[in-house]
């Protein structure tokens, strides 16, 4: 698949690489460090003893069937869910145990189906993108600065959606709305973009456009965490794959060693053949 080359706006919005520059002689902390993370909701264990480290700027896919706990993991990263406070639990993001939720959500760009549902209302695309500066749904009484306006314009251009700026969010296709939310997630220049089941409900044309968009973002140095149940969402830039099932991590390693017919068949409980084509992986035979 051909990757779209971003123009001047794309070059302006990505001035820095996706890895932290720590103090001389010190290594920057990982993006996240989880040890023995268990989350219980409605008396049900939805994450079970998760231990996981992801580096800043790393491109990772988290793959698993529906109900595996993938979205719950995203909500735990985003501090919507909190782990059981047992001994031995480590729950750090960028080396910090305690975060202001609004600061955290501006430091991490997150796009989810829940967020898209929240934005299915009569606010303009430009307003939706600008609201990312305030972690709000719409602008309300927030003051928008000229710098924010410029940043929003650059992102709309970079993602090829400038023509949608005055359109209402509830008048967009699923693919268009997804790209708007990606723009919203990028307003603070996060070093990592987390995408939770990003291609649900996209047709082939929208899927092609969306995947090209994510590749362009990864190419500018932003780390991608792709949370999905579809092998074809795993862009070639992703080098590590984590498999989840029943609230647990069942495999974690280099993409070539994890995306095999046996491992994917066991994960989804169906016989499959996994083939690789031009850096993409596909499951067939089920």
Q: Which overall shape is indicated by the principal axes computed on the Cα atoms?
A: globular
Biggest sheet features: 6 strands, mixed
CATH class: Alpha Beta
Q: Can you tell me the CATH superfamily?
A: P-loop containing nucleotide triphosphate hydrolases
Terminus-to-terminus distance: 25 Å
Strand order of the largest sheet: 5-6-7-3-8-9
How many domains, as an integer?
1
How would you sum up this structure, described in words?
The chain is an alpha/beta fold and 286 residues long. Helix 7 packs parallel to helix 8. The chain has helices at residues 8-13, 70-77, 101-107, 113-118, 125-130, 146-158, 174-185, 204-219, 255-258, 261-268; strands at residues 32-41, 44-54, 60-63, 90-93, 109-111, 192-196, 223-228, 240-245, 248-254, 273-277, 280-284. It has ten helices and eleven strands. The strands form three sheets. A six-stranded mixed sheet has the order 5-6-7-3-8-9, sandwiched between helices. A three-stranded antiparallel sheet has the order 2-1-4, covered by helices on one side. A two-stranded antiparallel ribbon has the order 10-11. The chain is globular. It is 30% helix and 23% strand. The chain has a single domain (8-15, 26-284), classed as P-loop containing nucleotide triphosphate hydrolases (Rossmann fold).
């Amino acid at each position: 698949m051909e990757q779209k080359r971003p123009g001047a706006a794309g070059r302006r919005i990505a001035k820095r690489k996706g890895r932290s520059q720590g103090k001389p002689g010190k290594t920057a902390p990982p993006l996240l460090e989880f040890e023995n993370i268990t989350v219980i909701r409605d008396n049900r264990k939805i994450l079970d003893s998760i231990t996981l480290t992801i580096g800043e700027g790393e491109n990772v896919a988290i793959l698993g069937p529906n109900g595996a706990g993938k979205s719950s993991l995203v909500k735990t990263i985003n501090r919507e869910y909190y782990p059981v406070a047992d001994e031995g639990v480590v729950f750090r993001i960028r080396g910090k145990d305690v975060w202001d939720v609004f600061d955290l959500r501006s430091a991490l760009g997150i796009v989810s189906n829940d967020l898209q549902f929240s934005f299915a209302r009569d606010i303009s695309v430009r307003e939706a993108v600008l609201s990312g500066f305030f972690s709000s749904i719409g602008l309300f009484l927030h003051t928008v600065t000229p710098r924010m306006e410029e940043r929003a314009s650059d992102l709309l251009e970079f993602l090829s959606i400038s023509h949608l700026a005055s359109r209402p969010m509830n008048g967009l296709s699923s693919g268009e709305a997804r790209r708007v939310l990606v723009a919203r997630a990028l307003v603070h220049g996060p070093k990592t973009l987390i995408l939770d089941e990003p291609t649900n409900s996209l047709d082939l044309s929208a899927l092609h456009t969306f995947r090209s968009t994510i590749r362009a973002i990864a190419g500018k140095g932003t780390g991608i965490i792709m949370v999905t149940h579809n092998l074809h969402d795993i862009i070639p830039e992703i080098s590590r794959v984590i498999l989840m099932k029943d609230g647990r991590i069942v495999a974690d390693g280099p993409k070539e060693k994890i995306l095999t017919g046996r491992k994917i068949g066991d994960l989804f409980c169906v016989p499959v053949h996994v083939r690789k084509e031009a850096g993409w992986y596909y499951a067939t035979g089920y």
